[in-house]
């Protein structure tokens, strides 16, 4: 046997959610876990594949679900409708991420003291807000994520180390948002780092991304470099 996958059902505020748990059954004992938060369209094969890649490296990978079992957007308009309630209610966003974290921490095979999260685009904001909520996890990495903070987290202790992987030409998170994030995390005394990839746009790490009107474009170099940065970060925070 090798990489195994299993649906993992959990709930938040009465909403049925379904993530995908992945692990390598050739490895014995408890293992660190990495949650993977999806883009604005919902949990898809791209996110599931990232969870499986993490399982190959010895982690328990968990592709989480923000919208509800089977809920997916099929175009930018549908994606925006799914994402909007969470952008309007960032407390609900953090609570849903906390539900995913709680589901992971209930798994017998997971080392409860070694959990991290990564997220793409909307998912990048989700993992940042999870850290901002004061959640108990080792680290979060945001890839071409939205960066603006919610209005309810001032004074919260951020326990997680923060890695932000950002495209210099991302129109959805301009450089002034990066500067504001730097000020926010420094004021909180957080262990943080930001990597900026020149000429990269939003969704640079997503193969096939190509929407000039929205400023989405895959960048193979930025994707490769960012994945290397994530693996280095996980090795550090989950050691």
Structure description:
35% of the residues lie in helices and 27% in strands. By secondary structure, the chain is α/β, with parallel strands linked by helices. It has one domain: Alpha/Beta hydrolase fold, catalytic domain (Rossmann fold), CATH 3.40.50. Helix 3 crosses helix 4. The mean pLDDT is 96.
Brief description of this entry?
This protein is of the alpha/beta class. 35% of the residues lie in helices and 27% in strands.
Give the SSE layout.
Elements lengths: L2 E10 L2 E10 L6 E7 L7 H12 L3 E4 L12 H13 L1 H16 L4 E11 L1 H11 L6 E5 L17 E7 L7 H13 L4 E6 L12 E2 L4 E2 L2 H18 L2
Parallel strand pairs: 3-4, 3-5, 5-6, 6-7, 7-8
Antiparallel strand pairs: 1-2, 2-4, 9-10
Helix pairs in contact: 3-4
CATH superfamily: Alpha/Beta hydrolase fold, catalytic domain
Number of strands: 10
CATH topology: Rossmann fold
CATH class: Alpha Beta
What strand line-up does the widest sheet have? 1-2-4-3-5-6-7-8
Overall number of domains = 1
In terms of per-residue confidence, which ranges show pLDDT below 50 for 5 or more consecutive residues?
Answer: none
Keywords:
single chain; 239 residues; alpha/beta; Rossmann fold; eight-stranded mixed beta sheet; two-stranded antiparallel sheet; 10 strands
